Amino acid sequence: MTSTQPALGGRIDTVEHAAATPDHPQPYRELGLKDDEYARIRDILGRRPTDAELAMYSVMWSEHCSYKSSKAHLRYFGETTTDEMRAKMLAGIGENAGVVDIGDGWAVTFKVESHNHPSYVEPHQGAATGVGGIVRDILAMGARPLAVLDPLRFGPADAPDTKRVLPGVVAGIGGYGNCLGLPNIGGEVVFDPSYAGNPLVNALCVGAMRVEDLHLAHASGVGNKVMLFGARTGLDGIGGVSVLASETFAGDEAGGGRKKLPSVQVGDPFTEKVLIECCLELFRSGLVVGIQDLGGAGLSCATSELASAGEGGMRVELDRVPLRAEGMTPAEILSSESQERMCAVVRPDDVEAFLRVCAKWDVIAVEIGEVTDTGRLQVHWHGETVVDVPPRTVAHEGPVYERPVERPADQDALVADGPERLARPSTPGELRETLLRMVASPNLASRRWVTEQYDRYVRGNTVLAQPADSGMVRIDEETGRGVAVATDCNGRYVKLDPYQGAQLALAEAYRNVAVTGAVPLAVTNCLNFGSPEDPGVMWQFQQAVRGLADGCRELGIPVTGGNVSFYNQTGGTAILPTPVVGVLGVIDDVRRRVPAGIGAEAGETLLLLGD
Amino acid sequence: MTARIGVITFPGTLDDIDAARAVRSVDAEPVALWHADADLRGVDAVIVPGGFSYGDYLRAGAIARFAPVMTEVVRAARRGMPVLGICNGFQILCESGLLPGALVRNAGLHFVCRDQWLRVENNETVWTTRYDAGAEILVPLKNMEGRYVADPATLDELEGEGRVVFRYLVDGDASQRYLGIDSPNGALNHIAGIADARGRVVGLMPHPEHAIDALTGPSDDGLGMFLSVLDALVAA
Amino acid sequence: MARVVVDVMPKQEILDPQGQAVARALPRLGFDGVTSVRQGKHFELEVDDDVDDATLAKIAETFLANPVIEDWVVRRVDA
Amino acid sequence: MARVVVDVMPKQEILDPQGQAVARALPRLGFDGVTSVRQGKHFELEVDDDVDDATLAKIAETFLANPVIEDWVVRRVDA
Ligand SMILES: Nc1ncnc2c1ncn2[C@@H]1O[C@H](COP(=O)(O)OP(=O)(O)O)[C@@H](O)[C@H]1O
């Protein structure tokens, strides 16, 4: 199937048409834009946006893509990072993933992301595509993905819905990661009633590269070509944008446009595996100037971010995009979240070689445009202009909110309600019963049912995986240099005291890395919280960020990246605030790792450190 | 002079680098073979490694067996070239008819990754001479479609001719018993690996290439397979 | 005793990697002329005669298929 | 253009744990009266008109099904 003419019968909303029809009503509210946000878009463009532009702005200005509620707070990470902490950081917050120098010419990149909401709707595919997304982020830095970890939170273990969600999530993470050939080296499984209607599915990926191979997402060099490669673009995850099709074409003979589309995406791990190998060969052959993965917000995100981070503009011929569905509109193509796609900037002389490498791996690749010096992102559709915007306004200059922050009124009561009033076991019999209850409790029971579904051996470099305090992989077979990664968070502590709770999560992950013999180097995080429109949640968020940042300064290791997931709540009730912290450490020689466990040999001496 | 052992890469193959590492670790030379080339590059033996060739989407191994390189492997195997299929490689060898039977979804329906004890039932194949008969070895097992099945006549033949090479040791393994299975995957007769009639083509679900170094695997019990074939090739 | 067949297919607009893999492989195997393949699940049920159509529909919708990503068809067949 | 359906089922003598798992789950979900479930694959192909029955049979036998473990049925359906 090649790209088809619009089959919906309606006319495509071009820039020219938009300029001529300023009063044409647009469904911006259905797309999640506020009145003032829509006004600002009109202001930026000096006219109403076209459908395609509206689709781009609405997805890129969403909470998920623009960090509009969290930006003001996340700045604190930068403010508290000293030059000394920055010394080993090759890329930090703002790039696809943070990168640190681990010595011997090696750089390591890692990041954790959430896929909470999709995993509730369709646990298997939601979790699978979560893994796929984070792996592409790592790949887009120029690194070979090495391993994954999966911090998970579910409702009560015996709740009926947990029986739907948990097995699906685990099968999805395993199914995708195993098929990609990435060992799963750790994670968490935590049960708490607050996650019953809103499980947390976070996925962390770590990758490595030679320092000189670091690829940053930018489109530079006027005349360079923009290549789209990987899977075809379909109607996946278009979600809200489908209202545009129905609005614009309502009442015409095509019958009112699209029916409601499922907002879930289905993953194709095989295509991603081939895409990884293809990208790595492209990097090795020096054929890539800039690269960006297509994740949330699809081509809207990739083109605007590449152009925005580059020096000029970009022209895109949207009708060249290989499609999977018929009759897709420009707005739909721009916002499709079809998985397993990448976008690269390539020198004109290299296009042929680029296409050859893709052909070798059976990866579909097309040139969809080029880097220009116009300072604008211009998207064409069968010869007409459907998007003409300053790319920064889409990608980097979205709205920023200072949401109200307020310590919840019931916080004092919560803190005052300590364990003192709980009965303590006083007889040996009660002690025994308490112990047995704890051992059997879902939060302390063996995780084998989960971890046995994950391949921890593939690639033959896994030195530590479950059961271990942190996962460890070897990076350099000659020298034995490797990295250790752990993730932690106790949401109950964070709820009691978000500042200290976040520091406890950091300290735990830091310790888990340190006890394996690795030296902690960098921090990533996935900040899972309730609604930012709730001042109490915003207080939790603000406190957690401050706690984490201050803790990092104390320990002397920087936050190199992360992810914010808001709106984790069931009805009006937010989840336990869950800032999952990932710490990465380096070890010169993995043969000197310290495995977990005591009692391997008779006569060992046990020492207790700390108090 | 050492042996040159080919390691095939299909789209979706994962454990090719592990297999090559195992070959190197016994001082043989690994030779990369590409699925699309009908060319074995003059190798002395071939390993079909694990992974998810073509995503295992239709059936594990169903698409890979039609690759040009497999036509050459089948031809060479019929002439007696040693061939080892590991996991997905075993599935591919069954699909291509070099080995009898088939591998289907684990009876527990889940992917299973664990350290698995095996008994070496036949130490006379070209891939197992370094083991003592009846030796018990610890090797990783990791797959979704690892349950070996064959019709009763084929099973009788395999058992009668001593062609069951590895068997899962299931004593005391209670982990799957709630599913009514007393092995990791419900394989008939607890079969983990089999050989062709000449003992030159061997396929097994567990991964000897992940057990070559106690640093990265549960043991180095897997090395014996690579040393065995090297003995045979160097002696020849 | 009645026999019932339920076919469950990925929705048209949903990616079907399995069907795609088959479709891409066929020409390589020398089979031309197959322009599209979709792969789904096929269930064969034996049910008591008193199980009515509404119940069968319910079983398919709530359990055999995932309505978020799949369509399904239930049919009774002669044994 | 013709539409062809291929149903592939595990052979009767082969254990079908997927089907069994479904059968075991149904009573727990409150659905009684289903005495047996078997699960297989359902393929829908679009083929050019000049693809004959012999070719379709070949595609099913050599590729879509594994005769060692599976049975299959090919049928043309009206579009
Ligand atoms: N979702 C998961 N994915 C992968 N590994 C996990 C997961 N959950 C737990 N693990 C691993 O299982 C082991 C035990 O987990 P856990 O009981 O949470 O240990 P701890 O309390 O020491 O962190 C650890 O190695 C941990 O990394």
TrEMBL record, chain B:
<dbReference type="GO" id="GO:0006189">
    <property type="term" value="P:'de novo' IMP biosynthetic process"/>
</dbReference>
<dbReference type="Pfam" id="PF13507">
    <property type="entry name" value="GATase_5"/>
</dbReference>
<keyword id="KW-0436">Ligase</keyword>
<keyword id="KW-0067">ATP-binding</keyword>
<comment type="function">
    <text>Part of the phosphoribosylformylglycinamidine synthase complex involved in the purines biosynthetic pathway. Catalyzes the ATP-dependent conversion of formylglycinamide ribonucleotide (FGAR) and glutamine to yield formylglycinamidine ribonucleotide (FGAM) and glutamate. The FGAM synthase complex is composed of three subunits. PurQ produces an ammonia molecule by converting glutamine to glutamate. PurL transfers the ammonia molecule to FGAR to form FGAM in an ATP-dependent manner.</text>
</comment>
<keyword id="KW-0378">Hydrolase</keyword>
<comment type="pathway">
    <text>Purine metabolism; IMP biosynthesis via de novo pathway; 5-amino-1-(5-phospho-D-ribosyl)imidazole from N(2)-formyl-N(1)-(5-phospho-D-ribosyl)glycinamide: step 1/2.</text>
</comment>
<feature type="active site">
    <location>
        <position position="207"/>
    </location>
</feature>
<keyword id="KW-0963">Cytoplasm</keyword>
<feature type="active site">
    <location>
        <position position="209"/>
    </location>
</feature>
<dbReference type="GO" id="GO:0005524">
    <property type="term" value="F:ATP binding"/>
</dbReference>
<comment type="subunit">
    <text>Part of the FGAM synthase complex composed of 1 PurL, 1 PurQ and 2 PurS subunits.</text>
</comment>
<dbReference type="GO" id="GO:0004642">
    <property type="term" value="F:phosphoribosylformylglycinamidine synthase activity"/>
</dbReference>
<feature type="active site" description="Nucleophile">
    <location>
        <position position="87"/>
    </location>
</feature>
<dbReference type="GO" id="GO:0005737">
    <property type="term" value="C:cytoplasm"/>
</dbReference>
<protein>
    <recommendedName>
        <fullName>Phosphoribosylformylglycinamidine synthase subunit PurQ</fullName>
        <ecNumber>6.3.5.3</ecNumber>
        <ecNumber>3.5.1.2</ecNumber>
    </recommendedName>
</protein>
<dbReference type="GO" id="GO:0004359">
    <property type="term" value="F:glutaminase activity"/>
</dbReference>
<dbReference type="InterPro" id="IPR029062">
    <property type="entry name" value="Class_I_gatase-like"/>
</dbReference>
<keyword id="KW-0315">Glutamine amidotransferase</keyword>
<keyword id="KW-0658">Purine biosynthesis</keyword>
<keyword id="KW-0547">Nucleotide-binding</keyword>
<dbReference type="InterPro" id="IPR010075">
    <property type="entry name" value="PRibForGlyAmidine_synth_PurQ"/>
</dbReference>
Automatic annotation (TrEMBL), chains C, D:
<keyword id="KW-0547">Nucleotide-binding</keyword>
<comment type="pathway">
    <text>Purine metabolism; IMP biosynthesis via de novo pathway; 5-amino-1-(5-phospho-D-ribosyl)imidazole from N(2)-formyl-N(1)-(5-phospho-D-ribosyl)glycinamide: step 1/2.</text>
</comment>
<keyword id="KW-0658">Purine biosynthesis</keyword>
<keyword id="KW-0436">Ligase</keyword>
<dbReference type="GO" id="GO:0005524">
    <property type="term" value="F:ATP binding"/>
</dbReference>
<keyword id="KW-0067">ATP-binding</keyword>
<protein>
    <recommendedName>
        <fullName>Phosphoribosylformylglycinamidine synthase subunit PurS</fullName>
        <ecNumber>6.3.5.3</ecNumber>
    </recommendedName>
</protein>
<dbReference type="GO" id="GO:0004642">
    <property type="term" value="F:phosphoribosylformylglycinamidine synthase activity"/>
</dbReference>
<dbReference type="GO" id="GO:0006189">
    <property type="term" value="P:'de novo' IMP biosynthetic process"/>
</dbReference>
<dbReference type="InterPro" id="IPR003850">
    <property type="entry name" value="PurS"/>
</dbReference>
<keyword id="KW-0963">Cytoplasm</keyword>
<comment type="subunit">
    <text>Part of the FGAM synthase complex composed of 1 PurL, 1 PurQ and 2 PurS subunits.</text>
</comment>
<comment type="function">
    <text>Part of the phosphoribosylformylglycinamidine synthase complex involved in the purines biosynthetic pathway. Catalyzes the ATP-dependent conversion of formylglycinamide ribonucleotide (FGAR) and glutamine to yield formylglycinamidine ribonucleotide (FGAM) and glutamate. The FGAM synthase complex is composed of three subunits. PurQ produces an ammonia molecule by converting glutamine to glutamate. PurL transfers the ammonia molecule to FGAR to form FGAM in an ATP-dependent manner.</text>
</comment>
<dbReference type="GO" id="GO:0005737">
    <property type="term" value="C:cytoplasm"/>
</dbReference>
<comment type="similarity">
    <text>Belongs to the PurS family.</text>
</comment>
<dbReference type="Pfam" id="PF02700">
    <property type="entry name" value="PurS"/>
</dbReference>
<dbReference type="InterPro" id="IPR036604">
    <property type="entry name" value="PurS-like_sf"/>
</dbReference>
